[in-house]
Amino acid sequence: MKIKLLLITILCYTFSFAQTKGTIKGTVTDKDANNIPLAFANAVIKGTTTGVTTDEKGEYVISIAPGNYILQFSFIGYENAEVPVTVVAGETVIVNKELGSGGYKLEDVVVQKSVSREKETALLLDQKKAVEIKQSIGAQEMSRKGISDVEEGLTKITGITKVESRGLFVRGLEDRYNYLLINDLQAPSNSPYKKIIPLDLFPTDIVGVLSVYKTFNPNISGDFAGATVNIETIQSKSITKFSVGAGYTTNNNGEDFLISSDANSTKGFFGMVGKDRELPSAFGSVPAAVRLSPEQYQEGYAQNSWNVDNSSSPINTSVGVLHAERFKFKNDNTLNYTLSLNGENKFVIRKGADRTILQGLGNYDNNFYKEEYKYQTNASALIGLKYKAKWFDLSSTTFYLRSTESKIQDQLGYSNNQSTNPNILIRLNQFDQSDYLNSQLYGNLKLTSDSKHTIKAGGSFVKTSYQQPDRKFIIGEKVSETEINTSYGGNHLNRQYLDVKGNYFVSGLLEYNYKMKEKENGKSNKLSVGYNMYRNDLSSTYRILAGVRNLNKNYTAPINTLDQYIVDDINNGIIFFREESNADYKVKLNQFVNAGYVNAFFSFGENFEINGGVRVENSSRTLKFRNFGDGITDPYRKKTDDELDILPSINAKYALKDNLNLRFSGSKTITRPVTMEVLPITYISADGQSEVGNPLLKNSENYNADLKLEFFATNKELFAIGVFGKKLNNPIEKVFIAGAGGSGSLTTYRNSKEAILFGAEIEMLLQLSRINKNLENFSFGFNTSLLKTDVKVDFGNTSLENEPSRALQGASSWIINSDLKYEFEFAKDMKNTVSLVYGVYGDRIFAVGGSGVDHIYEKPFNKLDFVWSSKLSEHIDVKFAVDNILNPEYKLELGDNNRFELLEPSNILENYKRGVGYSLNLSYTF
Which of 115, 200, 778, 866 has the CB geometry, 3.0–4.6 Å to 768, for a possible disulfide? Predict the structure, then answer.
């Protein structure tokens, strides 16, 4: 009886105590993003420790004793807000608040500091809320991991690896299967050898968020199989920052370094020697077998010689300036502007084997020891403006990217199976330059005050240029450390001029969005109808000159100062230079893609969301070219490929719990070939290796399916597991054709019959305080992809294929990425983050073999990096990084499944070590 009385007393007391409290609740929204819910914002009673953080819907609830209070709202990078509130016992008061980003207010010229919102927690929430399978990495995460460019940043996302100069591989699929958007607008590549821009040209200072879509949606390009990457350029931060950096890589810096004499100058330091290497005007715009006179040679090559300087490679350097500001007007309209300038230079040395196999005999065709010396420069500039008003926002972004590489390559050994003379030296002197100018205008318009009817529109104009001016070769027998014995003829003194000009690339986007009536769960069904397009027009020329002998001459000369010997022999009539280009020297390409789409989002109850639609793409690709035997002035041959593709997609998400999502996606997409894969150009090297495009390539047709389970333990933790499958009809692959009888080797591209891919992905973000409280400042990230591929080929007596099925070229069977982070403070304002980042991929086919020669395999490469980022004060940040700590060997190997006995001691065809890189970056924020 006493126990019952006690319980009744406690219940009555608890009830009466509860009645003495009141409740404050509401929703915090983002004023600058159409009032979407703002998760993880703070709602705190001023002067107390009582407060909460908003949930993923932006909602909060505070229970407190009656009284008058000041309720404070805050979020990193947003203006704080205070609201007076009166709490009455037993009652609930609703306080909703919009938060906007900080900035200048022009009426009182008060500066309010602003910080980027691209936090890991915010992006993790975005991933959780999205219906499609999407992953992002923001400025904050890239900074703490020591990431300096976009390409490196994307490798931290599940299933993505970076492969030397070959770009990004997604789920084992190489560059051609990926696509690039910049601020949601389609963008071309600056290189004809790549599908998308080499993303290491984008410094992270100009990037807000990188998003990777691994599932297809109708509002992105139908050219999709691996992933679509969207780069959102930075717009909103108020900041002025100056940064400088220096780097040292073992076996690369502080070493003997060969550099072309014209590049070893002030102009060369900035990569400004391209004009000095242009084709002499005497050759005209159309090949006509012009023979240069001694006077014309002197005039045409006054600033461009055969000489090479033997110098030393100093440290790598970088510099960057970023200034951005935000102005707020009396009517709450805002204006942002962003200015960014970045530049860097780098010295790279690669040394190792360089071999090819002779078809059917088991001997090396080429067997060289190769040394490469590359001086690289990258520069970028960005100007961005954004005006935001109540009814619309309008943004303009113009950016320029420029990269150059001056390369000296020495191959010492033998070619064309001539193993009796292993001291043949082939020297390549090459300069690459790419220029990329992209101007964009895009914005959003509210048609109604409730934002139910909106329009999104944008357009861009792009000019590109890729050049290899005066790519030239010297060939002779090395007789000492500094001299060669040579004679004129063959590929000796061959000069090549490759010029791929993007005359114009225009893209456009127009999208209407209808947001239906909001449901009780706070969600609204949506309908999007849109149109986008692009037109790409480019032309390429490939001109070839040869040093032709009038008289036989054999002589010994210093390899690095050969120019004066050649000039003297030209003046004495022993040799002359003549153009030997053929009718196939010029190719034109025009591609026009129009697309319309419908996309609908439906919410069913609290837990089920579906996003589905269809995209219809009409594409026309026209190639104009002449064949080898045609006349120089004959009419162009014309090949036109017209396609109409209907591309449906569906993305569904079911919330099993508030923090547990099940996702499904299915779609049909296509893959278009890379420019150089389809251009009928035979690109020749002096060692007998050639690469030729295939104008008969078809688009791949892709069927994609994904299933994924995500568990968000906290706002900083994630565990996800997914499975995916793809069927590719007519997959495009790189094929290596070994030479017979010392005739050299050929690399080309072709469609296989069919490829089936299926695999699994696991991703984890874990706070180690779960294991032990002493590890509360540690976090661990891990992701892996497992992949199985099966390619069916046309196999028979006339086929080059060795087997009727094999793995897909470029696809690894497994990929692992992980990182360990530790955060600590030396003092209140001295915050530090230390990260260890590791990545590795499994064996994959680099080039498909044939005619009894097995495939060439790219071997696993283990990469471990260390990054220490430290905020020394309010204004000074320091980053120290050690790159490629393990310094493993990069290797290409011939497989063991050959139809002949390999008679050579090694099946390694190419190998080298990159060295361990140490870098220090210092930035000052004003």
Answer: 778
Q: Distance of alpha carbon 530 from its chain centroid, rounded?
A: 26
SS3 state at 483: strand
The answer to whether 559 and 483 have CB atoms below 8 angstroms apart is yes
Q: Are 328 and 334 in contact (CB under 8 A)?
A: yes
- pLDDT tens sequence across 478-498: 999 999 999 988 778 999 999
Q: Are 48 and 36 in contact (CB under 8 A)?
A: no
If one compares 113 and 214, the residue with the highest pLDDT of the two is: 214
Q: How is the chain split among helix, strand and coil, in percent rounded to 5?
A: 10, 55, 35
- Distance (Å, whole) CA 793 – CA 799: 9
- What b-and-e string marks burial along 653-669, b requiring 16 or more CB atoms within 10 Å of the CB? bebeeebebebbbbbbb
Please, what is the Cα angle at 313 between 311 and 317, to 5 degrees? 140
How many CA atoms are closer than 13 Å to the CA of 844, on its beta-carbon side?
Answer: 28
Q: What are phi and psi of 582, to 5 degrees?
A: -105, 180
Nearest in space to 830 (alpha carbons), one of 875, 870, 879: 870
Mean pLDDT of 502-530: 88
User: Does residue 360 surpass a pLDDT of 50?
Assistant: yes
Query: Looking at residue 202, what is its pLDDT?
Result: 74
Rounded CA-CA distance 474/467 in Å is: 21
Give the distance between the most distant pair of CA atoms in the chain.
Answer: 126
**Residue entry with tokens 């992270």:** 204
What is the C-alpha separation between 881 and 870, in angstroms, rounded?
11
DSSP 262-312: TTSSHHHHTT--TGGGSPPGGG-SS----B--HHHHHHHTTT--S-EEEEE
% the chain with pLDDT above 90: 52
Element (H, E) at 123: helix 120-129
pLDDT, averaged across the chain: 86
CB atoms within 10 A of CB 627: 11
**CA pair distance 729, 659, nearest whole angstrom:** 38
CA 784/CA 667 separation, integer angstroms? 23
Q: What DSSP string runs through 544-562? A: EEEEEESS--EEEEEGGG-
